[in-house]
Design a protein that fits this description.
The protein is mainly beta. Helices cover about 5% and strands about 45% of the residues. The protein has one helix spanning about 50, and strands at about 10-15, 20, 25, 35-45, 60-65, 70-75, 75-80, 85-90. A hairpin with a 2-residue loop joins strand 6 (about 70-75) and strand 7 (about 75-80). The longest helix is centred in the middle third of the chain and has 5 residues, at about 50.
């Protein structure tokens, strides 16, 4: 990966999921949904606050839909999140 987060930031690769209704209709990601997003940690900065979260590469986290900054590298979308944008770790 060519991105290195600075300070109290992490790089997350959002997990995109299509939602399917009971009748079989697929609701694409382009439809606005007010739910939290999930992603996989790709890189972690060396800031003191982010280190306290005890995250490691490969962990799954939940963050707000509008949190962080979107970045595209080699046609792959990532999010750069601050320590306070991470809501929970999925175990």
């Amino acid at each position: 990966m060519r991105l290195k987060p600075l300070g109290d930031r992490i790089i997350v690769k959002p997990v995109t999921e299509e939602e399917i209704t009971k009748s079989g209709i697929i609701i694409p990601d382009t439809v606005e949904k007010e739910k939290k997003e999930e992603g996989e940690v790709m890189a972690i900065g060396d800031g003191e606050k982010i280190q306290k979260l005890n995250l490691k590469k490969g962990d799954k986290v939940i963050f707000g839909k509008y949190s962080g900054e979107e970045v595209t590298v080699d046609e792959v979308e990532y999010k750069v999140l601050k320590d306070e944008d991470v809501l929970a770790k999925i175990e």
